[in-house]
Amino acid sequence: MVERNDPAPDPLTVLLKATADPTRRAILTLLAQEGPARVTDIAGRFDTSLNAVSKHIKVLENAGLVTRRTDWREHLIEVRLETLGEIDRWFAGLRSIWAQRLDALDDALALERDDDDDHD
Amino acid sequence: MVERNDPAPDPLTVLLKATADPTRRAILTLLAQEGPARVTDIAGRFDTSLNAVSKHIKVLENAGLVTRRTDWREHLIEVRLETLGEIDRWFAGLRSIWAQRLDALDDALALERDDDDDHD
DNA sequence: GTTTCGTTCAACCATACGGGTGAATAACCT
DNA sequence: AGGTTATTCACCCGTATGGTTGAACGAAAC
User: In 3-state terms, what secondary structure has residue B71?
Assistant: First the structure.
C-alpha cells in the first residue's frame, strides 16, 4: 500500500528543477543565442547522446521553458523566457516578506526609542 | 571511460537545486517571515523529522541561502536573500542574449529593406 | 554523576534522475 | 520496395536525493 498519489508537483518546483541542470541551462542559452532549433541540431552541440538531449528538452517543455513546433518529423524547439517570470515572482514575494519583517522591526525599535525619550 | 574525477558543481546549479525543493522554499519563507530561528524550532513547523530539516538546512547553507550562528548548541539559522541575486543575474544574462539576437534580426531585416529601397 | 537538550552523524530504504543502447515509428528519397 | 532521417519509446544502470530511525556528542542543569 504505497498510497503515494502525488502526481501534483507545483509548477514552481518543476520550473526550478528544470533550470537546476547545467545541460538544460546550456540548451536554453543556445536557443536564446541562435533561435529555434531542431532536437538533433541541439544535440550536436553537446557531448551527450541525442537521446539524453531529447529527454532534457522534454523536461524543459514540461516546465514551460520551451515550446515545440512539430513540422512533421522536424521538431522546432523554441525558448520561452517569459516562464522564468514565475521564479522572479517567487523571489519578489520572498523579498517583500523579508522587507515587511524588517519594517515591523524598525517600527518596534522606534516605539521603544520614543518610550525611552518619554520617561527619561 | 567515465572520467568522473571531480563533480565540481557550479554554484548556480547548487543554488537552483537548493531552491528546487518545496520544503526548502518553505523554510526560506519561514525564516524571511519570522527572522532567525533554531533548527528545532524550524523543524517544529513541518511534519518531517528534525533530522530531515537539519539536512535541508545544510543544503541551504551550502548554497549560501542561509547562514548559521552557533551559540554553542543553539544554531541560529538566518536567511540570506542576497544570494538569490546570482540567479537573477543568470536570468538577466539569458534575456540579454535573447534580446541581442532579436536586435540582430531586426537589423538584418532593416538592411534588407534598405537594399530594396536602394536599387528599386 | 546522571540527565537533559539541541544538533549532527551513520546507516538504511525507496524513489528520482541523468545517461546509454537499441528498437520503433513514419514520411521522404531513391 | 528499401534505405535514410528525426525523434521518441522502452529498458537498464549507477548515483543522488529525501526521508526515517537510532546513536553520539558535549555542555548545562539537576
Answer: strand
pLDDT at residue number A1: 39
Task: Report chain B residues whose CB lies below 8 A from the CB of A81.
Answer: 94-95, 98
B104 residue type, one letter: A
Domain assignment present for B2: no
In a mutagenesis test of the A interface, which of B79, B81, B83 is the best target, namely the one with the most A β-carbons within 10 Å? B81
- Which of helix, strand or coil describes residue B67? strand
The amino acid at residue B80 is: R
Question: Number of folded domains in chain A?
Answer: 2
Looking at the structure, tell me whether residues B46 and B92 fall in a common domain: no
Residues of A in contact with B22 (CB under 8 A): 9-10, 13
Are residues A85 and A39 in contact, defined by beta-carbon separation less than 8 angstroms?
A: no
pLDDT in tens, B29-70: 999 999 999 999 999 999 999 999 999 999 999 999 999 998
Distances (CA, A) of A112 to A56, A102, A103, A120, B35: 56, 15, 14, 12, 19
- Give distance CA B109 / C1' D20 (Å): 62
